[in-house]
Amino acid sequence: MRAIFITGGASGIGAAIARRFAGEGWRIGLADVDSAGLAATATALSGGAETYEMDVRDRDAWVRALDDFTGKAGRLDVLANNAGVPMGGPIAEAPFEEIDRTVAINLVGVLNGARIGHAYMKRTPGSCLLNTASASAIYGSAGLATYSATKFGVRALTEALDGEWHADGIRVRGLVPAFIDTPLVRQSPHGSNRSIRETVTEAGLELSSADDVADAAWRAVHGEALFVYVGKTADRMRFAARWLPGKLRKGMRRQLS
Questions:
Q1: What CATH number is given to the structural domain containing 66?
Q2: Active-site residue, from 147, 148, 208, 229
Q3: How many folded domains does the chain comprise?
Q4: What is the pTM of this model?
């Protein structure tokens, strides 16, 4: 039985990926800081899941969790580096502790997963590292500067390891979702009384479902594309970044004005 280990697995995209792969008969490992959410997600899966209350910033916790999961599963076919936190608002007003936390979870946490997970994936022929980036990694998004910076880092890591790990037989793939209707978008950026969800819908942009991302994750793991884009906004930004960069730049300038 093939096995996938998913960070940020208590809700949202991580939980949806768990449901998608469990439905295909995979063994599931879930990691998150939310113990109640982990239990709820695992209970909802027909085959259950191994759960690990874990902060992706904690390298010792990574080793303990992967040792335990691979010891039980006997393999690690996919490591889904999915855990992340939102951060919005003008960077000039952002608390430094919020900047530090976002970088540590969204970027360093992914680096930790790649660095520590490599040894486990290398022992499973044809394994895959699946990183969750964002449409904010296509072009830096005004009002999301720190978040965009971390997701650009995830994108760069995915590209770098695609080359670096080829000789090890480890495939590397990236998900590039736009705005996904999860609990994260119901939060309000620092200094704002409007949620990310309200801002997105008022701008006329669509929200994709977490299940859409889970389907994209399945395609990414089994396909040849380095990145799989999810949602019309991601597709439009990818097109504009390549063919209409001036228009996209002006749009970002107007976004917070």
A1: 3.40.50.720
A2: 147
A3: 1
A4: 0.90
